[in-house]
Amino acid sequence: MRMMTRRAFLKSSTAAGLGLAAGCNPAPSPGVIFKGWVYEPDLVRENLDYFERQTGIRVDYNAVSGNYHDKMVALHVGGAPMECCYVRDDDFAEWVEAGWLRPCDDLLAADPDTSATTADLFSYNLSSMTYGGKRYGLPYYTDFNIWIYNAAMLEAAGFDAPARTLDELTEQAIKVREARIRTPDGDVIEYPIMLNFRQSVLGFADWWTLNYASEISLFDDDLNPTFPDDEGRRAETVLQWLTDGINRHRIISPSSLTVGQMRDHVAGGRQVYGILNKYDLEYANNRRNSVAADEELKRSGSDALHAKVYRMAPVPSISPEQNGTLGWTRMYSLTSRCREDRMQDAWALMKFLGAKDAAGEYYTARRWFRLRGLGFAYRSLLDDPDVVAQTEQWGEIDKIREQARHVRPRENIKAPWFPDFKIYYQPEIQKVLLGQQSPRDGLARIARRCRQLIAEWS
Amino acid sequence: MTVLRPFHLMSRTRDLLPLLLNLPAVILLLAFIAYPIGISFWMSLHRYNLRRPDQVYFHGLENYATILASSEFWNALWISLYFTFMAVLLVIVIAMAIALLLHESFRGRGVVRALLLIPWAIPGVVNGLMWVGLLGDYGAFNAMLEDSVAAVNYLFGINIVYTGMASPFVALNAAIGAHVWRSVPFACIIFLAAIQAIPTEQYRAARVDGATSWNRFRFITLPWLYHAVLVVAIFETMNGFRAFDLIYALTGGGPGDATHVIAWQTYKEAFARLDFGGANAYSYLITLITMTLAIIYIRLLYRRGLVQG
What we know:
The structure holds 2 protein chains of 2 kinds.
Chain A: H1 6-24, E1 32-37, H2 41-55, E2 59-64, H3 68-77, E3 84-88, H4 89-97, E4 101-102, H5 105-109, H6 112-117, H7 123-128, E5 130-131, E6 134-135, E7 137-150, H8 151-156, H9 166-178, E8 193-194, H10 205-213, H11 234-247, H12 262-267, E9 273-277, H13 280-284, H14 291-300, E10 310-313, E11 325-335, H15 343-354, H16 363-372, H17 385-394, H18 397-404, E12 407-408, H19 418-433, H20 439-457
Parallel strand pairs in A: 1-2, 1-3, 8-9, 11-12
Antiparallel strand pairs in A: 3-11, 4-11, 5-6, 7-9, 7-10, 7-11
Chain B: H1 6-44, E1 46-47, E2 57-58, H2 62-68, H3 71-103, H4 109-116, H5 118-121, H6 124-135, H7 140-156, H8 168-196, H9 200-208, H10 213-242, H11 245-250, H12 262-272, H13 276-303
Antiparallel strand pairs in B: 1-2
Helix pairs in contact in B: 1-13, 3-8, 3-10, 3-12, 6-8, 8-10, 10-13, 12-13
C-alpha cells in the first residue's frame, strides 16, 4: 500500500478545502431561477420544457420539499438567488411586507396582451394578488370550497336531495346516521359529516366557508372583527351548529379535528357530506383514486374513468336564500431579488405559466385543469367547450358557474397581522369544538386578540 | 532594554505552542457555537419581526417581559413540564427494566439488543408520521383503543364516547408515548453499560447473606445506577423540553392547545409570526429552564451523596 506523506496530505487537504469554498459560491445560474412547492414536479417540468422550446429561455426549477412557507422564509432571509416563485395568498401580505416580492405593474403596463387578461380574472383572484394598490402576481391555480354529498347514500337513507339549511342538515344527517349506511368496505358510517378542522398552516378553510355560506362578514372594512355581536349573532350560530354537530347530535366526526387529507376520506366513500376543494371533486370521483367511484362503475359495468358518486350543492347556510363560499389563490410572483438582466425572461415565464403562452393560449391553466382538474382564475375558461365537456365527466358545470358567483377571499388575509391571527384562532376554535369553551367565549377571545393585533400593527 | 535570550524564546514558544495548536479548534468553536449563541441573545433583546424588516430596534428585555406575561407561555410551560416529567419517569423505568432484562443471559440476546436500537435510529418526524399511522382513524392502536372503550361500555353499561386523537388527553399522552418509545433505547444502553460495571462479588456476597432479589436490586444495583440515572434524567429533560418534530408531525399542536409544548410555541413565534426577537427569547427561556432543572438534579443527588464529583 502506498503511504501518503504528511506534506502530500496537507496539500490535498488544502485543495479539498479550497474546492469546497469554491463550491459554496457557485457561478450565477444562466437561466431563470424558479421555485415552487412540491405538487406534481414532473408535470411542472414538462410545462417548463414546453416553455423552453417555445422561447429558448432556460429555467432552473426547484421544487421546495417540506413546509414551503418555512423553507421559503429561510431562503428569502438568506438572500437565495431567485427570480420568481409560487406564493399562497395566505403568505402574500407577509412576504410583501417583508420586501421579498416585486410588484409587476410596470411589466404589465408595458405588455398590453397580458394586461388585457386582467379583465378576465375573477375579482377575488385579482384582489388576492394586489396589495397596497400594486399588483404582485399572475395566477397559478385557484379554487373555492364546495359542499359535497354522496347521492346514493342519501337515497339509501330516503332522501332525494341534500339539505339546504344547517337545521335541515342536522335532521337529515341524524336520519342518515340512523339508517346505518355502509362504506364500500362494509363499515357502518358512524358520523355522516366530516370536516377539516385540523390545525395547519392554511387555517380552517371550512370555518370560513360555513360563515360565508350564511353571508356573514367576519370583519368590517377597517378589518375590525364584527363577531361575536355581528348581525343576528350568525357567526356564533354557525359555531354552535358545529359544536352541537360534534358533541350533541354526533353527526360530525370528532376526527374532523385531526384528519388532514379530506379528499382521501371522501374517495374512500367514508362520508356522506363534507366540504372539499372544488378540484378535489375530480379526484373523489375518479376511479383511479376513489374506491367509491370504482365500486359504482363496476356495478354499472362502465369502463369510464369517472363516476359522479359525489355531487356538489350550495354550502348549507342559516337561511335558504343565503349562498357563499371561500375562495383562494395561488400565484406566481417575481421576487425582489430578481436579477435585472433576467427580468424580461422571468416575466416571459410568469406570463406563460400564469397567463397566455406565445400562441395566445391559457396553455398552463388549461393543462392543469385537463390533467388534474385544478381550478383557474380566468372566467372565459368556464365557457371553453373542452373545459365544459371535461367538467361534466365528474361535476356539474352549471353549479360550478353559479357557485363561482358567490366566492369570497378571507377578509383579513391581507392584514399584516393575519399570520398572528391564523395561529391564534385555530386552537381557540378547536377548544370550542371540544366543548372547552362556549362559542361566544371563543369568538370573544378571538375578537379581543384581533383588536390587540390591530393596535400592535397599526 | 531587555535582551531576550534563546532560552526565554524557547520557553515562550513552548508556552505558546499548545495555544497555537488549539487555535483552529477554538476559532471553529467561536464561529459555529459562541457566535450563534451570542447573536441569538442579542436578537432576543430586539424587536425583530421579518414582516417589518425596517423596524428593527433594541428594546431590552421587553420580549422576555411580553412572553412571561402571556398566557400562551405559561400554558406551554405547564404542558412541557407534564410532558417532560412523564417522559423522564417512563424512560427511566422502562429503560432500566429492559436493561436489567438484557443483562441476563438468554438465547437471542444479541439480536434483541440490536433490535432495541431501531427506535433510536428513527428520525423524530418519521417517528411522528409512524404514530400518526398507528393512532390515526385507520390505525391499529386506534382500533384497539376504540374496541377497548366499546368493551368497557358494554361491560359496565356506560356510554363513553371515544374520540381518539381528537381528545386532548389522548393526544398529549400519545405524544408522550411516542417520545418515550424513541428515547428508551439510548437510556437502555447507558443503564446496560452501568449494570455491566457493577462488581459481581457484591451480588455473590448479598446472596450469601440471604438478600432477596428486590433487596439486591435496591441496595446494590440501584445505587450503582444513580450516576447513569442522572445522565439519563438530564438528557431526557433536555429532550423533553425540546420535543418539537414529533409534535409537528403527530398532532400539529392540537387539539386545542393540548400539545402546545414550549418548543412548538417557539416554532410558531419564529416561523408563523416571523418574530425572531420573540422566538430567540423563547429559546433562551427554554435553555434557562433546562439548565435550572439540570442543576436541581445534580444538587439533589450530590446532597444525598449519591454522586461523587
